[in-house]
Amino acid sequence: KKVIVEGEIGQTCQTSGCWITITDGANQLFVQFYDFTIRLKSGTKIKASGQVRLRNKAPYLAAQGLEILG
Fold it and tell me: What is the pTM for the complete model shown?
């Protein structure tokens, strides 16, 4: 099932842009990119879409799409 999450970029992969964390100020979600990479600053508002998966019993978003909100 495809989900869409919205928030601000927290941390970002400094090496290759293959992952970020997205936060709403109280919660944080790890977002992994498999088909593309990004170079955006922390605090950038985004909307990411993809499938929620589990890694080591922790949920993460396997992103398939990304939209910059502002």
Answer: 0.90
Could you give the 3-state DSSP secondary structure of residue 32?
A: strand
Cβ(4)–Cβ(49) below 8 Å: yes
Six token digits for residue 14:
């400094």
DSSP 1: -
- What's at 12, amino acid-wise? T
Q: Which 8-state DSSP code applies to residue 39?
A: -
For residue 1, what pLDDT is reported? 82
| SS3 label, residue 49 | strand
